[in-house]
Amino acid sequence: MLFSTERCVTGRRPAFMAWFGNFFEPYFSSREAARSGIEDLRRLGFNSIVLDSKLWSDFTHFFRTGEESQYVAMQRCIARCCRDNGMGVSFLALFAIGDNLYPEIYDHPPEFVDQPVDFWQQPYRGYRHWSAAQAEEHVRHCLELYRFIAGEAAAIAADETGRERLPFYFYHSPIFSPSFDEDGRSHYLAWLRSRYTLEELNDRYGTAFLSLDQMGAADYWTNPADPAESSRYVPSTADYEGRSAAILRYADNQAYKRQVMRDYFSRVASRLRDEDQRFYLYAALSQWKVFFSDYVHIQNRGWDLWDLGEILDSPSFITMPIDNRGYIEPYVVPCEMAMLRSAARDRDFVGSLFLGRYMANDIYAVCSPVEVIASAFGAGATDLYFYGYNGLDDGGNFGKWDVPEKDSLRRALDWFAEVREMAGRRVKTHRVAMIYPFASYTLSAQPTDTRQYDAFRDDFLGWYRQLADLGLNPDIIHPAHSGALTSYDCVVVPADPHYWAMRDDAFEGRLRAYVENGGLLLHGMAEAVHHAFAMEVHPHRADSFGWEEKVVTGSPGFVSYDSGDVQARYLGDGKAVYAIHRFGRGAVHSFGFHYGAAYASREHLPVAREYKKENHYPLTIIGRTPVERALAEAGIADRRRRGIETIQFERGMLVINHTPYTVLVEAPSGRWLSTFEGFDGSHLPGRHAAFLLG
User: Fold this and answer.
1) What's the CA gap between 628 and 413, in Å, rounded?
2) Of 62, 210, 252, 686, which residue is least crowded by CB atoms under 10 Å?
3) How far apart are CA 665 and CA 520, in angstroms?
4) What is the pLDDT of residue 605?
């Protein structure tokens, strides 16, 4: 938790940071426009900005000679404006592939120590993240930005101990870049040798190499020569559908990337802290969300959020209320921030939000800034970063908002600062944990695996929504950390269709032990559970099933069970679609469809003609869902309230209304703090939140 110590701040206020770009007019040329923008941010309640100061040649030239490009000169002017307004300056210092704007938008090329080369031996934009020299150049650039651009205007905060910190957003959207020269090849083959014997590798890939040295680029890397950049380095559709050895090779590529990126971040973070122990390092690992990417798909980039959570002061990424299909969906924000909370090991973290996005959807014409910021607080964020005030190339334009939107943002920041002081710590209830589908997140790629890519994301989000509607705010657990499951009342295992390629015996053993020792496990279409408990499943055609009502389900796939205590059957042939399996002192509730995807479905599927005049209802709107009954009988949850989040804190309850309707709430002590200035303690308007003391 940080407390801004900027001169513009009165009282105890979090670090509120906003990206401020000067690529485009009027901010590229007009000092008056830049000054006006900084003053606007101060009025809105921000206390520092993040300048876009990537490793471009004009920055290095300025650091060496003192000669300013127009862009650098404007950044120095903006830093002075911040100083004059009592605000601080930090930097987006490093970016993905070095730069994506030169030469069309930016006038000076990025700099590299030694660019990687592609399959055709041509250099391309990207970093050799395994190179110590490249890492050292990154450190140099970061430090010189503070020395020569920020100076006395550097953003400063204090942590809870009173220690001075420099919040530093130092790396934006990192991407692993392979290199197919001898350096890149030898580095990867050395990693393969450390992992497999020759016999093991041949068996895994279905090859017959006499030596790893015989392997060419296409033998050890995934589709390096695909002419279409979008499907280069990822498996083909046929590979996914056929579960070919190419998926296993890709799994190895991804594991190698994670190792390289983990080592890189460890090296750079250590070097920066050696130079200045005040650095508070956070990085927007993705501008386009992490799990529910809808516009730019980032799963091939190579880093693991949980790895970087061990290294950074705060892992972070930018999220927004829109799902992987581009639909506006407020639950994406608390769901993705629950991932962030898990990666941060329940430490305080910086929540990052995309505001003013008009590309692909006008999000904040539906969701309100106060609603989304309240969700960030409810998920555990203690400080906030926002993109972007004036990002004209990709839709971050909250600087162009009208008075109502800006008033909502200003009110939200003030509320966040007040409620952080009032609420105390978020309570970790240990009621429900959801397992992160690590294998499918790692292996599923667009555009070649679209069906599964969307299916397991829909399923995960739907499970989260079902649990949130029951007043539960599940923690999200990485399979590698599944030893923590023993403390939870209930565990949910969502769909993970590529689990077969990354089977984890230790994880399966922990699931068995959890249930045998009395745990309650819920799942649908989860291969890990089928393996762990030796369940036989049989493919089934799409069909409605009989529950307390007749239910028609939208699901990417269906199976039936021939074991367990049957709770619901398909209407057509009577086979089990929902069964309870008991092991030791616990139970496994098995659903033969993507339960979460069905719960989150936006469509009421037509009833099959064979059922004539029968009415079958979607899972979302039936009187009581199977999960609702199971958790009520277990004493874990009470009644369902669709669209209402409730989160327990030490001193009260946060209620967030994600619906467009007014709902009734009750403040036990008669005291509250709401995002709605006219809140009467009972009637909470749609798209607003209230913290109820007591």
Assistant:
1) 35
2) 210
3) 30
4) 86
- Render pLDDT for 495-540 as a digit per residue (tens, 0 to 9): 999 999 999 999 999 999 999 999 999 999 999 999 999 999 999 9
For the record, the structure tokens of 207 come out as 């090859």
Burial 119-152 (b: 16+ CB within 10 A, else e): beeeeebbbbbbbeebbebbbebbbbbbeebbee
Number of other residues whose CB lies within 10 A of the CB of residue 442: 21
Residue closest to 83 by CA, chosen among 6, 27, 2:
6
Please tell me what DSSP assigns to residue 517.
T
For a pLDDT cut of 70, what percent of the chain falls above it?
A: 99
Residue 586 has which token pair? 């616990």
C-alpha–C-alpha distance, residues 631 and 520, integer Å: 9
The rounded distance, in Å, linking the Cα atoms of 296 and 288 is: 6
**Taking each helix axis from N to C terminus, what angle separates 332-343 and 450-469, rounded to the nearest 10 degrees?**
90
- Helices 132-145 and 245-275: angle between axes, nearest 10 degrees: 40
Those residues with Cβ within 8 angstroms of residue 210's Cβ, 6 or more apart along the chain or in another chain: 198
Q: What are phi and psi of 334, to 5 degrees?
A: -65, -30
- What's the pLDDT at 55? 98
Residue 393 pLDDT: 60
* pLDDT for the residue 358: 77
In angstroms, what CA-CA distances link 595 with 200, 496, 620? 37, 13, 10
The dihedral formed by the CA atoms of 124, 125, 129 and 132, expressed in degrees to the nearest 10: 90
- Digit-coded pLDDT (tens) for 412-433: 999 999 999 999 999 999 999 9
Contacts of 432 (CB under 8 A, 6+ apart): 467, 472, 474, 475, 488, 489, 490, 491, 492, 631, 636
**SS3 of residue 62 by DSSP:** helix
Strands 644-649 and 314-316: unpaired
Residue with tokens 């609420």: 423
Instruction: Give me the residues of the chain with pLDDT under 70, please.
Output: 392-395
- Cα distances (Å, whole numbers) of residue 645 to 332, 406, 418, 468: 12, 24, 20, 6
pTM greater than the 0.85 cutoff: yes
- Record the tokens describing residue 373, joined without a space: 């910021």
The residues that bridge with 569 in the sheet, in sequence order, are 546, 576
**DSSP 8-state assignment for residue 667:** -
Q: How does DSSP classify residue 397?
A: -
CA angle, residues 115, 395, 127, in degrees to nearest 5: 10
Half-sphere exposure of 341 (CA within 13 A, CB side): 25
Three-class secondary structure of residue 339 per DSSP = helix
Angle between helices 245-275 and 182-195 (to 10 degrees): 110
Q: Measure the CA–CA gap between 283 and 298, rounded to whole angstroms.
A: 15
Do 34 and 389 touch, CB atoms closer than 8 A? no
Token pair, residue 341, equals 């909370």
Q: What letter does residue 554 receive in the DSSP assignment? A: -
Rounded Cα distance between 416 and 351, Å, is 12
- Quote the CA–CA distance of 122 and 200 in Å, as a whole number: 33
Q: Which residue type is seen at 141?
A: H
Spatial distance between the Cα atoms of 87 and 22, rounded to a whole number of angstroms: 17
Q: What is the pLDDT of residue 394?
A: 65
Q: Could you tell me the sign of the dihedral formed by the alpha carbons of 586, 501, 317, 191, in that order?
A: positive
Beta strands at 279-284 and 164-172: parallel, antiparallel or unpaired: parallel
- How big is the CA angle at 245 (ends 460 and 512), to the nearest 5 degrees? 45
List the 349-354 sheet strands across, edge first.
Answer: 88-92, 48-52, 16-20, 381-387, 349-354, 318-319
Which residue reads 């950074």 in tokens?
312
Q: Residue 433: which of 472, 509, 488 has the closest Cα?
A: 488
Query: HEC profile for 1-42?
Result: CEEECCCCCCCCCCCEEEEECCCCCCCCCCHHHHHHHHHHHH
Note whether 285 and 316 are within 8 A (CB).
yes
| H or E segment to which residue 657 belongs | strand 652-657
